[in-house]
Every structure is written in structure tokens, then in C-alpha cells.
Amino acid sequence: MTILVAGATGNVGRQVVEHLVKRGADVRALVRDPSKASFPAGVSVAHGDFLDVDSLRKAMSGVSTLFLLNAVVPDEFTQALVALNVARSAGIERIVYLSVIHADVYVNVPHFAGKFGVERMIEQMGFQATILRPAYFIQNDLMIEDVITGYGTYTMPIGTKGLAMVDVRDIAEIAALELLRRERSAEPLALERINLVGPQTLTGTDIAAIWSDVLARPISYGGDDTEGFEQNLKQFLPAWMAYDMRLMGERFLTDGMLPEAGDVERLTALLGRPLRPYRDFASQIAGSA
Hints:
The model has no long low-confidence stretch (mean pLDDT 96). The chain has 289 residues and is α/β, with parallel strands linked by helices. Helix 1 crosses helix 6 (168-183) and helix 2 crosses helix 3 (76-89). It has 11 helices and 9 strands. The protein has helices at 11-22, 53-60, 76-89, 110-124, 145-151, 168-183, 204-215, 226-233, 239-255, 263-271, 278-288; strands at residues 2-6, 26-31, 44-47, 63-68, 94-98, 128-134, 153-154, 192-196, 220-221.
């Protein structure tokens, strides 16, 4: 049977494909532009788009398990609902969906609210699904690498509540393990939600201190200005997305992204190793600076 990875060319999707191949799975990757796709040998490539229903039907033919990852775009919710309806028509029952932690809490943040709507659809349609809810991606901070190393300031609006930042590599490996668990199960598995978190919950000043240590010079935290954050993002993102990110940052400040009891232990057991800490990421950047 075949596992379809939809959203296969992004950082998470590409790594999911690689983990599945290493573990002997039959993998099909859904991509918009096959000429730009680079996957391990044996991966079949399906040319398609979430809003091209006919291409989705073709891509999902003969598929037993689906990994669904939708990019943050204006019609993200529509794309996900179309994909799930086509999957159901194709007889796919086993799903792993990449949502976001606190999707039911950050109700005013567009891409959080959309993902929570998708979660509800998955549940009400009776899919045998794992809903993965990752916290803030550690690798998001690559966007401000030059600001940190060049200007000595950590500018992400993290605040004082703290975020349980998680490494993208851990997200991808856990997603692959869940896909294989569902794919290889002889019996239907109940719907499950899993928070994907890192080993520590870090505040803005915590992260600035880590950067100060690995760079061996003072790095300050200056990220509570969400209006300034939005204006900076508008230099390279569409205005609607910059505003979406600002709203998310405001919820960072008021709510944080906190793990539930047992989350870290559960993920450590799933991986069979410790979760990757933020310091490893910062040290790698510092080593190449």
C-alpha cells in the first residue's frame, strides 16, 4: 500500500518522505512542479495542486494513508477541506494531519482558526487520524539570523510566558512514525492528538541568553513590539500574512505555547532519544557565522 505525502516539497514534507523511504515505505509525493522535485530513489511523484480536484483524484488513487500539510496561504482552509473530501471519496481512511498547538485557543489568528476547523472536519468525518499539533518551529528563527548575528538583538515576539519550541527534524520524524503506525496497523486506530514540543519552554530573554552564550557576546531581547514585527515582516511577506503573524505574536505574549503534562516524555519515548534543544540550533548557526 502507498503513503501519499501532500506538501512534500517543504522543509517538513521533504524530511517526512526521507524518513518513510528509510523505513521501507512505498511513498508517493504530491508536488506542484515535478521538475523541481528531488526525492530519494523509489519515490513516485504525482503532479498536482490542492485546488486541482482532478489532479488530487489521480494522486490519491491507490493510496492507503495520507500525510496532509497545508501551507499558510489565504485559502488554506479550502485547500484542506477539498483534499479531505477527495481522500474520503478515494477510500482513504488513515490520515496524519499537521495542525498547530493551541489551535483551539488562538481563535483570532487566521491560520490557527483554519487548522482547528480542519481538525473538526477530520473528527466529524470519522477519519482514523493522528492530528499533530506542533509548537513554534525552532527553524523559524532562521528568518532573523542576520539580525541576531549582525545587530545583537533577538526580535521575535516571544514574551515572558514561554514557547515550547520544537525542531523541524523532530516534527518530521514523528510524523513519519505516525504514518507508518497507521499504515501498518491491521485494525482501525482511534483518532489521536499529539502536541509536538521541544524539551524546554523558553522566554524571549532565555533565548537571548542562549545566543549570548553561543556567540560569546551580548544579545538582547527586543521582541515585544508586535507592531514593529508586523512592519518588518511586510518588507518580504504579503500584508495579510504579516498581520496574521503579528496576531500570533500577540498571543505568544498573552498565552505562550506551553506543553501539557507528559508531552516531552511521550515524544522522547516515540523517538527513542531526547528531543533536540534550541541550543543545538543556535550553536550550529554560531559555528557557521
